[in-house]
Design a protein that fits this description.
It is globular, with a radius of gyration of 18 Å. The relative contact order is 0.12. The chain is mainly α. The longest helix has 25 residues. 62% of the residues lie in helices and 0% in strands.
């Protein structure tokens, strides 16, 4: 038991209350996977495990997709942390990570700390592979996106806002998922990403072979 064990357990309960049953792929089990992956990467990269675990646990409570605004989500997390710890340095480190780690259409700046890189890698890894594919379609369904429309070119879809409901689930592979392998921060995450990326490429090949739409 570390001095932060109780705080981490409290954070876990808080996140379960906030995200259990969330239907867009950002539910508690996504958090659990990201937490476990972040701890695995942290061990390999010699990052601060406490900071990584807390940021992994809390990151989607603050996600702007699940709140009225980015600021509202960040305020919710900061207020909760202030009620449960007096360690301002820890709070600042966690808040810095979760405020900048989102993909956001590839527009966010690079993570400033190793711990931020670790948690961002863990979150991005959960967007890849078999689980990433499942989450893509769950999220698309929640946002009213269709699966695929071969009549819509990438050029047309690229003109839409990143979070637009007019995009398709399959297009999301090209605007984000297939780019993530080369955006991993840590060497160990890059290793983990290779197999998941290859599986997505195989999936897309099979998808198109089954679509059977004539030109």
């Amino acid at each position: 038991m570390t001095k932060y064990s109780e705080f981490i357990q409290q954070a876990e309960q808080f996140v379960k209350q906030e995200l259990s049953g969330e239907a867009s792929g950002h539910d508690w089990w996504h958090i659990e996977r990201v937490r476990n992956t972040a701890l695995e990467i942290a061990g390999k990269e010699h990052a601060d495990a406490v900071v990584c675990e807390l940021a992994a646990l809390l990151h989607d409570v603050a996600d702007e997709k699940l709140n009225d605004s980015k600021e509202a989500g960040l305020d919710k997390v900061r207020s909760w942390m202030l009620e449960h710890t007096t360690d301002m340095d820890l709070i600042d480190q966690v808040m810095d990570i979760i405020s900048t780690m989102s993909y956001n259409g590839g527009k966010n700046p690079p993570m400033k700390t190793l711990e931020g890189q670790v948690v961002q890698d863990a979150d991005r890894l959960d967007a890849l592979g078999a689980v990433g594919i499942a989450r893509t379609f769950v999220y698309s369904g929640a946002k009213g996106r269709i699966i695929h429309d071969p009549g819509l070119s990438e050029e047309i879809l690229a003109q839409e806002d990143y979070r637009s409901s007019n995009k398709t689930a399959i297009y999301h592979f090209y605007e984000k998922l297939l780019k993530l392998k080369d955006l991993m921060n840590t060497s160990y995450a890059r290793e983990l990403a290779e197999q998941r990326h290859a599986f997505m490429e195989l999936y897309l090949k099979q998808f198109y072979s089954e679509w059977k739409v004539r030109d």
